[in-house]
């Protein structure tokens, strides 16, 4: 049985039911960006009474801004949100700050029992999985591990067949990127920073760097996001080129920096910061989002809602493909957002195509990708990165290539479509009897062939010609074989 974690934050997230959100509540971006004051009442009724009774004075705002802005005012009103925002729940999420946290458990229970409340939770903090960076400024020759990952997933073949479309953009929700890094220069689009952390709410961790100022510069202070970005879009000067080919990348800094064990920097992020950053990414039109962070289910009270639920629904409703790291616990358990339905959960394999011992397992894991000794970008130079955090970007990159190929053939591609294709085309693990790690190992070339076969089959069925004989997909041949086999 899960134990209720101690309350350290004065922030809670309340999702009201359809039609219950008052129009006077400002959006949080208006509060931070335009100086709009947070509201000191919600409904002038039972919600306000409970908040004051259990929490004293309080302030409230909408967590998210509407996709379509009303230019003349910076105050969010319900009529600006469209049906997708309302039905998914993102238009109905309030962030409420109370003065007194001593009675927070009673407040959460009381609010959850109200008929107009859909769900309520603390604004808890999650962490990015740990990595093993080299010292800052390490030159390419200092990275001793050979670039095995691209060969393992047949990346060269895939990029020869589908080089990627610059109009297809991957969103990276992480610790930001090393702005100005030679590998990322001219490969990363303008991003932004949604980090606004309360030092009292991070469980004794020491926050470092910029953790209270949202802005338009997603400067990485950890190295985690830069590592993911290098896997996705590196120029290939001192490390392998990005697996997403010519596809674009928009970074959002949703995780700040804190000192972990041994004073190593780790990424930490509040639930509201993460979800708000992802909402803006989605509204900017990204096609794929990589999420290399998570919260274990064991850290949540049994009755608590699963984190990121509304933003996951919203992304899927907008046609965004969601990819997440399964976790680094080595246990069979669920991390969120990876365990949400509709998210492609990715575990890690080593260079021998065996599941890494640290890779979190479970029935929700779709497949694995290279996640051990990966050569990629650091804060200033390069690093060797290990973890499911760095397996997930390989899968996200292949999803971007799939979306590029689908767009080239004028064919829609959903997150579920992408998941089915990745699973269908995965290579077997090197050893037998693997449990809880998904179907197999990511195969970029076979995935593109599987997509083409699926499109050809659908067209043939529409035209009444029946299914083509080559619809059954087999894994791609080894990377050194002829590229002509891709068109077979």
UniProtKB/TrEMBL annotation:
Gene3D superfamilies: Peptidase S8/S53 domain (3.40.50.200). The active site is at 174 (charge relay system), 224 (charge relay system), 389 (charge relay system). Residues 167-428 form the Peptidase S8/S53 domain. One of its GO terms (biological process) is proteolysis. Keywords: Hydrolase, Protease, Serine protease. Residues 466-488 are annotated as: Disordered. PROSITE patterns: SUBTILASE, SUBTILASE_SER. GO terms for molecular function: serine-type endopeptidase activity. InterPro entries: Peptidase_S8/S53_dom, Peptidase_S8/S53_dom_sf, Peptidase_S8_Ser-AS, Peptidase_S8_subtilisin-like, Peptidase_S8_subtilisin-rel. The keyword Hydrolase applies. Pfam families: Peptidase_S8. Belongs to the peptidase S8 family. This is S8 family serine peptidase. It comes from Agrilutibacter solisilvae.
